[in-house]
């Protein structure tokens, strides 16, 4: 396998084979993100990706059960090319159970329902979607390149196609000023398509990103640990997503809040209330759970 630059993957793909299908991100404008800054986006030729899959087969044999195809927004590739790659991977690895990619709502929404069904039939199991927020003011401020309507449309299409959806909610990305509307409008959006997972990331400034500069200059204010937990509390209170798994599977979070809706809602709220009794100065990122 040949890799270019830093290869990012969600924690839940820790045991997956990683095969880069794209290099960089076709959007590359989110103000909080530094992952692919300075990398010119390109899609690798299908034959090159297939050659990497053959290399993995030589190295690992038949025993690959899960493949994640980075980099950012691999879903932007032509449907016929993705179908070819996924089908080829399934031929090579007879025990393959899961194929996943990153896909922002804007790029997923460009696919027709028929495209998404074809991808599902070719083996696509799950999309990791960085929604970040369902609030249009927040989305616009962070230059996410999507609107809440696009997030809903993409989510509904994926659900209809039977592709699992892992949504990422960025705690604190609206700052204290927009925290409440960020949580309430995100719940409103998520309730309309009911993702399989809602995964929390708590915003922590990273160098080489515009929002880091805004944070350093005082233009953007971070939530305190208690404010971050209160924001998660408000989101969970407003979620009406039966069956959705909520998880804090990332080191950026101050506390591990995990449970299935609706049966674990009260337990998660109690857990948050307990965490809120702990002095902020001692709150640190929590151990993570992989799902
Ligand atoms: S957050 Fe995702 S869509 Fe936004 S710039 Fe980073 S990789 Fe691209």
From TrEMBL:
<keyword id="KW-0411">Iron-sulfur</keyword>
<dbReference type="InterPro" id="IPR006638">
    <property type="entry name" value="Elp3/MiaA/NifB-like_rSAM"/>
</dbReference>
<dbReference type="GO" id="GO:0051536">
    <property type="term" value="F:iron-sulfur cluster binding"/>
</dbReference>
<dbReference type="GO" id="GO:0003824">
    <property type="term" value="F:catalytic activity"/>
</dbReference>
<dbReference type="Pfam" id="PF04055">
    <property type="entry name" value="Radical_SAM"/>
</dbReference>
<keyword id="KW-0949">S-adenosyl-L-methionine</keyword>
<keyword id="KW-0408">Iron</keyword>
<dbReference type="InterPro" id="IPR051198">
    <property type="entry name" value="BchE-like"/>
</dbReference>
<keyword id="KW-0479">Metal-binding</keyword>
<dbReference type="InterPro" id="IPR007197">
    <property type="entry name" value="rSAM"/>
</dbReference>
<feature type="domain" description="Radical SAM core">
    <location>
        <begin position="9"/>
        <end position="242"/>
    </location>
</feature>
<dbReference type="InterPro" id="IPR058240">
    <property type="entry name" value="rSAM_sf"/>
</dbReference>
<protein>
    <submittedName>
        <fullName>Radical SAM domain protein</fullName>
    </submittedName>
</protein>
<dbReference type="InterPro" id="IPR013785">
    <property type="entry name" value="Aldolase_TIM"/>
</dbReference>
<dbReference type="GO" id="GO:0046872">
    <property type="term" value="F:metal ion binding"/>
</dbReference>
């Amino acid at each position: 396998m040949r890799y270019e630059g830093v290869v990012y993957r969600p924690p839940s793909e820790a045991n997956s084979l990683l095969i880069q299908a794209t290099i960089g991100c076709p959007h590359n404008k989110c103000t909080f993100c530094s992952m692919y800054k300075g990398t010119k986006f390109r899609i690798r030729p299908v034959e090159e990706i297939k050659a990497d899959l053959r290399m993995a087969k030589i190295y690992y044999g038949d025993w690959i059960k899960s493949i994640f195809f980075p980099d950012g927004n691999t879903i932007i590739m032509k449907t016929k090319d993705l179908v070819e790659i996924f089908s080829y991977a399934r031929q090579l690895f007879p025990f393959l159970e899961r194929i996943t990619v990153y896909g922002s709502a804007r790029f997923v929404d460009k696919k027709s329902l028929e495209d998404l069904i074809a991808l599902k039939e070719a083996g696509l199991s799950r999309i990791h979607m960085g929604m970040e927020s369902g609030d249009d003011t927040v989305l616009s401020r962070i230059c996410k390149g999507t609107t809440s309507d696009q997030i809903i449309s993409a989510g509904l299409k994926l659900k209809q196609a039977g592709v699992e959806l892992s949504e990422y909610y960025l705690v604190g990305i609206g700052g204290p000023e927009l925290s409440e509307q960020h949580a309430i409008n995100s719940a409103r959006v998520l309730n309309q398509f009911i993702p399989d997972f809602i995964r929390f990331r708590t915003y922590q400034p990273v160098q080489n990103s515009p929002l880091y500069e805004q944070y350093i200059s005082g233009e953007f204010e971070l939530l305190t640990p208690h404010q971050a937990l209160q924001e998660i509390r408000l989101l969970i209170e407003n979620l009406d997503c039966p069956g959705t798994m909520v998880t804090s599977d990332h080191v950026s979070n101050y506390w591990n809040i995990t449970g299935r809706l609706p049966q674990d809602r009260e337990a998660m709220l109690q857990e948050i209330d307990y965490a809120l009794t702990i002095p902020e100065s001692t709150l640190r990122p929590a151990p993570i759970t992989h799902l």
